[in-house]
DNA sequence: ATAAAACTTGACGGAATTTTGACATTCTCT
DNA sequence: AGAGAATGTCAAAATTCCGTCAAGTTTTAT
């Protein structure tokens, strides 16, 4: 899953820097240089918002409240101020965290990740059930065939998770590789056929049926 | 346990009356006569909030949403209105119940108690009991194996608390480190395997069984 | 102040996983 | 049918990860 982040700040230099840095970390980034623009860009359905608290026109705090009327996602304030009162005001307006300028990019990334994870944990459906008694529990990362638990390695489970969460769709090896290894991973996506083999063997041994179908020349698909 | 109740209403006469009545029933009461005051008084960590829906300035519904961004507790609306639409609006804003004015004090107490009871059931497990006689008391920070108390250091207990509160889920070392040390802590999350080792040794010595499972390449999980 | 306990660090070996590459098989198209 | 490309199989190599220990540092208790 690749996350979308909306940056709201009126300093183009800063937004430019942040944007490219976040993109390097695999995020999809939208930028708004004004409050109005920010409200428009909410339709990109960001997973997280970085919000400069000092903005001309509508204040960052006001904007925060306005945003809260539309979507639910973590909102992190970027600010030079740091008084306790500011903090209270920000949280009161519906913000989730404060990051004071100047901040390290590492810290920024760490906080973003923390909030995204927390947010994700709050609204993740716990499990996916597929045909004929095979249960894939995504939060526990366990797979059951009837009462029996099947054991999969990390990569194997990640591939199962990706495919079974998007049943009946065909994904080529590059796509799967990107989803599981990461967009910037270097390496040969031909490893996948080996992992697929292992997965198939385990599933077949336990259940006696095929869950992953090869679509020749196109990729693989999870049958449902 | 004595519960804290926050009353939010702009009519001093009413708040005065309610306050003394609730105090007679053993509750600790805070009063806010405006929305701003209400938000400030959230730091008293009320267990329940009585909220007048008709308030000057920020509307009761808005206030309710704002409160919801900060704490989780039952919110009961006090209102003269009673249309179905109002009810829907209120619940949508995050309210838990409606009490229409004028109301009997007995009824009020009854509803408050009902909600407190329900709330307590929902999110205050004072202790976690896991398989075979192991008891983890989170509020006292003590662990028992049958009658015998086991001793854990702070870090050890923190890790046990985090894992056992989220049984069966797998957390990688970074995630555990973040949860226990804090998301902005610097340091090497590899310390965790050493703490895990200590925890396992103590639990094994006392109970003879494994509670923490290693999921290779993914992290650790509390078996339940 | 001193001792004890808790916490952290780094290194090592072994174990499980992941990757690689050679080769076999299957499929598509002519 | 046969060439070429894509996929499947297998075993060995490379890598990553975990458990353990010993030693150093910090914190807490006496």
Description:
The structure is a homodimer of 224-residue chains. With 224 residues, the first copy, chain A, is α/β, with parallel strands linked by helices. Chain A folds into 2 domains: 4-122, Response regulator (Rossmann fold); 127-222, Orthogonal Bundle (Arc Repressor Mutant, subunit A), CATH 1.10.10.10. Helix content of chain A is 42%, strand content 22%. Chain A has helices spanning 12-24, 35-41, 60-68, 84-92, 105-122, 154-165, 173-181, 191-207; strands at 4-8, 28-32, 48-52, 75-79, 97-100, 127-130, 134-137, 142-145, 148-150, 170-171, 212-215, 219-222. In chain A, the strands form 3 sheets. A 5-stranded parallel sheet of chain A has the order 2-1-3-4-5, sandwiched between helices. The longest helix of chain A has 18 residues, at 105-122. Chain A is elongated and about 65 Å long. The mean pLDDT of chain A is 84. Chain A binds chain B through residues 68, 88, 91-92, 94, 107, 110-111, 114, 117, 139-142, 153-155, and chain B through 39-40, 65-66, 69-70, 168-170, 175, 178, 183-184, 215-218, 221.
Average pLDDT of chain A, rounded to a whole number, is 84
Tell me the β content of chain A: 15-25%
Structural class of chain A: alpha/beta
Q: Supply the number of helical segments of chain A.
A: 8
Task: List the helices and strands of chain A in order.
Answer: EHEHEHEHEHEEEEHEHHEE
CATH class of the largest domain in chain A: Alpha Beta
* Largest sheet: number of strands, sense, barrel closure of chain A: 5 strands, parallel
Query: Could you list the spans of chain A in which at least 5 consecutive residues all have pLDDT below 50?
Result: none
Number of structural domains of chain A: 2
| Range of helix content of chain A | 40-55%
| CATH homologous superfamily annotation of the largest domain in chain A | Response regulator
> How big is the Rg of chain A?
22 Å
Within the largest sheet of chain A, what's the order of strands? 2-1-3-4-5
């Amino acid at each position: 899953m690749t996350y979308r982040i909306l940056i709201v700040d009126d300093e183009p230099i800063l937004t430019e820097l942040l944007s490219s840095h976040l993109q390097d970390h695999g995020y999809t980034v939208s930028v708004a240089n004004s409050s109005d623009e920010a409200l428009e860009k909410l339709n990109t359905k960001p997973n997280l918002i970085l919000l400069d608290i000092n903005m001309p026109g509508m204040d960052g705090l006001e904007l925060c409240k306005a945003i809260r009327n539309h979507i639910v996602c973590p909102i992190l304030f970027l600010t030079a101020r740091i008084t306790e009162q500011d903090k209270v005001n920000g949280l009161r307006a519906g913000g989730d965290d404060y990051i004071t300028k100047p901040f390290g990019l590492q810290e920024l990334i760490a906080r973003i990740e923390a909030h995204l994870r927390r947010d994700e944990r709050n609204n993740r459906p716990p499990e996916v059930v597929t045909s004929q008694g095979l249960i894939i529990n995504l939060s526990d990362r366990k797979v059951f065939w009837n009462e029996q638990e099947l054991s999969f390695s990390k990569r194997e489970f990640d591939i199962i998770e990706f495919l079974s969460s998007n049943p009946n769709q065909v994904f080529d090896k590059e796509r799967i590789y990107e989803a599981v290894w990461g967009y910037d991973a270097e390496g040969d996506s031909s490893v996948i056929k080996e992992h697929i083999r292992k997965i198939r063997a385990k599933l077949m041994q336990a259940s006696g049926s095929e869950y992953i179908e090869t679509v020749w020349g196109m990729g693989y698909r999870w049958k449902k």
